[in-house]
Amino acid sequence: MTLDHAWLPGLRGRGRLNLNESAYGPLPEVARELRAQMSEVNRYPEFLPDRTRSVVATHLGVDDESVSVGAGATGVITQALQDAARRGLDAGIVDPVMVTAIPTFDGYPIIATMLGLRFRGMPLDPAGRVVLGDLRAAVTADTVAVVICSPHNPTGTVVDEQELHDFIDDLPEHVIVVLDEAYIEFAERPPDLMRLIGTHERLLVIRTFSKAYGLAALRVGYGVGAQRLVGRVREFEMPFSVGPLAAAAVPLCLSRQDELTRRVNAMRTERAKMAALLAASWRAPVAGEGNFLFVGGPAGVELGSVLASCGVLVRSYRSDGVRITVGDDAATAEIGAVLHTVTATV
Question: Which ranges of 170-256 would DSSP assign to H, the alpha helix?
Fold first, then answer.
């Protein structure tokens, strides 16, 4: 379906469905605390985020020494890859490589360039899944890190838990694995975190408060793993990297798992509605488990153009397709209005 979308009438919406943000604002108690903290923004936060680290560790049921905290998942990922780059230098690797599946989070190639890592991307399979066998084949003597996103960004697919264990077991000793679980709260059957970190000493599991917890602007995330690995990663924690607003919000969010569950369930309901809408009006999306949907191929590219021309911000991936954040009722209705108008004019 090829159209001149610029003329579509009355659909210049303000949908912001390109960054996988939460459709919900902060919890009322978080909002109150943030307002209270504003009077203290002339003060520096904690030099290193030890209080936040302790809160996260207690929530997970691990020792503080098993947790590294940073400015969002991106901050902790950067710390982990800094350690990987250092390992490469220590091992005499002149041109260290990180391996991951593509397309992926836009930050990964940027971080790789920042740290002097060569970025080696392996394509997803036609169903939008990470192919662990292909990642393993891409690991060579110069590889220092493998990054696996599950649920994967941008398709939302998840890796099989046992296949993940087998994959890590098969890697050379000098390679670390970063398991990016930024969207894990939305997954239907998340892997056993304790088994993962208890089994693999070279695995760092990354999580964030930006997505399900709705704290994207506050920039706070964490990594959890074996104490030896985390100890090395913590050497790259930036002083003052977790601000007082984030430090105040984290314990409040973790104390309200009931509200988290309610919001996640609401998102899943909205995701199913949007998936059905896309399947009926355009093309079925990938069966993903994030707070977003991905429509692949030329149909997805065209859909991205349609939505963008109507003022709905989405994330297009050149020839690969389009990722649409699952928003609230109104966002789904807006997409439905766009598709209805497009199909009615063809």
Answer: 193-199, 227-234, 244-254
CA distance 90 to 87: 5
Helix (H, G, I), strand (E, B) or coil at 207: strand
Is residue 143 classed as helix, strand or coil in its secondary structure? strand
Cα gap 43→106, rounded to integer Å: 33
Token output for 299: 């149909």
What single string gives the DSSP state of each residue in 109-153? Answer: HHHHHHHTPEEEEEEPPTTS---HHHHHHH--TTEEEEEEESS-T
For the beta sheet containing 292-296, the strands, ordered from the edge strand earlier in sequence to the opposite edge, are 292-296, 321-325, 315-317
d(CA 228, CA 183): 26
From first to last of its 346 residues, the chain has per-residue pLDDT tens of: 333 333 334 444 347 999 999 998 888 999 999 999 999 889 999 999 999 999 999 999 999 999 999 999 999 999 999 999 999 999 999 999 999 999 999 999 999 999 999 999 999 999 999 999 999 999 999 999 999 999 999 999 999 999 999 999 999 999 999 999 999 999 999 999 999 999 999 999 999 999 999 999 999 999 999 999 999 999 999 999 999 999 999 999 999 999 999 999 999 999 999 999 999 999 999 999 999 999 999 999 999 999 998 889 999 998 899 999 999 999 999 999 999 888 766 5
Largest separation between any pair of C-alpha atoms in the chain: 62
Which residue is associated with the tokens 């679980």? 181
Find the helix or strand (DSSP H, E) in which 294 lies: strand 292-296
Strand ranges of the sheet holding 176-180, from the earlier edge strand across to the other edge:
67-70, 221-225, 203-208, 176-180, 143-149, 97-102, 118-123
Kindly tell me the burial class for residue 90, based on how many C-beta atoms sit within 10 Å of its own C-beta (0-12, 13-18, 19 or more): exposed
Distance of CA 266 to the CA centre of its chain: 19
Task: Report how far residue 332's alpha carbon sits from residue 337's, in angstroms, rounded to the nearest whole number.
Answer: 9
Distance between CA atoms of residues 248 and 56, nearest Å? 12
Residue 315 · residue 323 · CB < 8 Å: yes
DSSP structural state of residue 237: P
